[in-house]
Amino acid sequence: MDHLKDIIREFDFEGYFVNGHPIQNGHINDTYKLNFSCEHESRKSYILQKINTSVFRDPLGLMHNIHEVSNYLRPKLEDKERTLQIVRTKNHNLFLDGKNDGCWRAFEFIDNTVSYEKVTSTEQMYKAGLAIAKFHHLLADYPVDNLKITIKDFHNTKWIYDQFMVDLQRDKSGKSAEVFKESSFFEKRQKYFGVYESLKEEGKLPIRICHNDTKFNNILFDKKTEEPVALIDLDTVMPGFVLNDFGDAIRTGANTAAEDEKELDRVQFNLSFYESFTKGYLTKAKNFLCQEELNWLAYSPYIITMEQGIRFLHDHLNGDIYFKTSRKNHNLERARNQIKLAEEMELQLVRMNELVVQYSSSPLRE
Ligand code: ADP
Ligand code: GN1
Ligand code: MG
User: Fold this and answer.
1) Which DSSP helix (H) or strand (E) runs through 17?
2) Tell me: the pLDDT tens digits for 199-236?
3) Ligand (nearest to CA of 248)
4) Per-residue pLDDT at 55 exceeds 90
5) Is 207 helix (H, G, I), strand (E, B) or coil?
6) Hey, whose CA ends up nearest to atom 8 of ligand 2?
7) Could you tell me which residues come within 8 angstroms of residue 30 by beta carbon, excluding any fewer than 6 positions away?
8) Number of Cβ within a 10 Å radius of residue 351
9) Domains of the chain, residue spans
């Protein structure tokens, strides 16, 4: 951690720096947990992150969003619930622009919590569904235009697919032939990619403040009570479709294997986990979702799983410049994993939709 000492000194942390270690479960930023010693032998921990500025090109806009949203949420939370608390620099800035050393920001560490890489019970899914619905509900009155767009077209699946196709056809990397099977999978399912945007154009799908990265490990649960405590990783909080938040939590939570599991037989879709999450989410969200959101809810895990598969495959073609990788063909393996998961979901779409109808008491989609 010696190389971080100059960075650490710039932040308004309480106490004396004792030690720290990297946390390596995210694909985007470089994250460290720092431990400090305060008066009366008490300890305090912080999160220090190097913002990935190739992904987030406007760090000030990004920190503005986190500052805005967390401040808006904090007074509305219940006793044991938390949101990110930014630790400012000694110059009172929301982040440190270390020029050649990159951009850094810090948060209070949310203690006594765990994040699950793999979900182990229907209860965890149910509670996560409730927590995400609550997040949407609490932000429903927040003025949408106050937030910056941190990544344009972040969940515009059609745009993501089109960009992928451009690079596939250019074949700069010479890998296009190798991914023929995978790219054909997406090509055959293109009709799903522009649905939300078209509905928005027709005025049928509302834009709401969403998290946009509801990967299961972005939810912190209380170690003891196993209740959700916080939704972290607020880098992509911005206007969007709730369908993406619903879908992404299921994409990650209801996969029976890790996102990069190579043994594809292990990649199954856990329908009970889907049901529990849907039940939890709709318990709260059925009161504010519109009919078109309900119509597409069951399809949203399927669509975002394909979107994620395209993103991984595209990064493989581009030479792994976006998602962190730790082995050769890592992104290709992740893409294949998402394709397998999408195939598994495809078999269950009718049942998935029936469950939405059941838990929302909405009329059956045509
Ligand atoms: P990335 O954008 O790279 O995914 P995250 O912001 O999700 O980075 O952080 C990575 C991990 O660090 C999280 O999954 C969580 O385990 C931990 N973490 C991040 N922020 C906090 C926090 N404020 N309190 C406790 N743990 C945190
Ligand atoms: C990234 O930051 P992290 O690891 O929580 C990515 C998500 C992907 C996810 C796939 C800003 O999330 O969109 O779904 O990897 N975040 C960004 O694992 O691109
Ligand atoms: Mg994360």
Assistant:
1) strand 16-23
2) 999 999 999 999 999 999 999 999 999 999 999 999 99
3) 2
4) yes
5) coil
6) 213
7) 22, 49, 50, 52
8) 12
9) 2-111, 122-360
Give the integer Cα–Cα distance in Å for 289 and 124.
23
Contacts of 131 by beta carbon, 8 Å cutoff, 6+ apart: 219, 228, 231, 280
State pLDDT tens for residues 321-337: 999 999 999 999 999 99
Residue 219, amino acid: I
Q: Which atom of ligand 1 is least distant from the CA of 233?
A: 6
H helices of 209-263, in order, are: 242-253
- The superfamily in CATH containing domain 122-360 is Aminoglycoside phosphotransferase (APH), C-terminal lobe (3.90.1200.10)
Instruction: List % helix, strand, coil for the chain (3-state, nearest 5).
Output: 50, 15, 35
Q: Which of the ligands is closest to the CA of residue 62? A: 2
Pick the CATH number of 2-111 from 2.60.40, 3.30.200, 3.40.1000, 3.40.50: 3.30.200
Q: Is 236 in the pocket of ligand 2 (CB under 6 A)?
A: yes
State the DSSP code for 111.
Answer: -
Of 13, 110, 8, 105, nearest to 63 (Cα)? Answer: 105
Residue 125 · residue 276 · CB < 8 Å: yes
Residue 153 CA to ligand 1 center (angstroms) comes to 24
Looking at the chain, the whole-number percentage of residues with pLDDT higher than 90 is 95
pLDDT for 366: 46
Residue 80 and residue 86: Cα distance in Å, rounded? Answer: 18
Residue written as token pair 């429903």: 140
